[in-house]
Amino acid sequence: MNSILHILNGDATAYSFEETGLEGDILVWREILSQGPLLEDISSADFWNIRSEWIRQTFNDTSDNYRGKVVNPLEKLSEPYDEINLWFEFDLHCQANMLGVLALLSKKTDLSAPAIYLVCPEEYPGVEDFRGMGQLNSEQLEDLYDDRMRLNEWEFTLASQAWKLYVNGDDTSLEKWLDENTFWGNLPSLKAALQAYLKRIRFNNNGLNYIEQKLLDIYNGGITSRLEIYDAFWQTEKIYGMGDAEIDIYLKRLVDKKMISL
Length: 262
Description:
The protein has about 260 residues and is of the alpha/beta class. The chain folds into 2 domains: about 5-165, Dna Topoisomerase Vi A Subunit, Chain: A, domain 2 (3-Layer(aba) Sandwich); about 210-255. Helices cover about 50% and strands about 10% of the residues. It has helices at about 10-15, 45-60, 65-70, 90-110, 140-145, 155-170, 170-180, 190-200, 210-220, 225-235, 245-255; strands spanning about 5-10, 25-30, 85, 115-120, 150. A 5-stranded mixed β-sheet has the order 2-1-3-4-5. The radius of gyration is 19 Å and the shape is globular.
């Protein structure tokens, strides 16, 4: 029997996934590479040490908890699977994590051995305001699996280029690359996510990036409680895939600049 690994984009997906009839081991990816400092060499100890320290400071977590929940599960990537399925959605949060996983796989796996597939829904029939696979039940996840896309050398090359540009954070180089690439193969959600990232790393005359300005506009429009700000932001900006804790990073910056009071 072939050995199969499913890399899931979070615990919300894992909850329903465990009820499916799909065979294979599960690795839950719990990092948020859409935020915080990065290094290009994701397989290095320095990369994970920097991430651990940032998570500790930003979310008041512990290094031991980070290692147990994030780093230790990655040991599965060194095992000789015949098939690896990546379950990541269309938004920047998931696409950044997907790029990190692909970068890590290219370092830790003999890519000639496993067949690597991507499950990447942008919507699901009958589910209004689709935001993620955590909304779906086990049967719906099995349907997504049936439509998965195989990633080949071309997609890995594209992802490698995207990862390097993403980590470097040079908006001019990234914009040029996005304009020059017209074919995205089986990475159909990557361009829109990186375009959202491009907006985020640019700053306006007020010294604010796109997300900060959007949150300030929501606040100045009369929505001043955190929960209502979250909801208003999600209505138009689900491309970022941000949870409460991530939005709080940007709200804190506005508070520190004395632009809002929460």
